[in-house]
Amino acid sequence: MTTVAELVDVHRYYKMELPNPDDWVRALDGVSLTFTKGEYAAIVGQSGSGKSTMLNLLGCLDRPTSGQYLLDGRDVSQFDDDALSWERNQRLGFVFQAYNLIPHLTVLENIEVPMEYAGTPANEARDRSHMLAERMGLGARMGHRPAELSGGQQQRVAIARALANEPRVLLADEPTGNLDSATGQEILALMDVLNDEGATLIVVTHDANVAARAHRVIHMLDGRIEKIEENGR
Amino acid sequence: MIPRVVALAWKSIMLHRLRSFLTVLGIIVGVVAVIAMLAIGEGASEAAQEQIRRMGSRNLLLASVQPPQSDSAASENRRVLEYGLKHDDFQRIVDTVPEITRIVARRDIPVDARVGTRKYTTVVMGTSADYADVANLRMRHGRFLTAADAGSRRTVCVLGAKIAERFFRSQSPVGQRIRLARHYFDVVGVLAPRGEGTGGTGGTGGESDDAVFVPLQTMKERWGDIVRVVQSGSRSYTKVQLHRITVEAANLDAVRRIARSLSRMLDRWHPYDVKLTVPLDLLEEAKRTKRRYNLILGFIAGFSLLVGGIGIMNIMLATVVERTREIGIRRALGAKRSHIIRQFLAETVLLSVSGGLIGLALGVLAPMAISHFAGMPTVVTPFSLILAFGISAGVGVVFGLYPAAQAADLDPVVALRRE
Ligand SMILES: Nc1ncnc2c1ncn2[C@@H]1O[C@H](COP(=O)(O)OP(=O)(O)OP(=O)(O)O)[C@@H](O)[C@H]1O
Ligand SMILES: [Mg+2]
Question: What pTM value is reported for the model?
Answer without folding.
Answer: 0.73
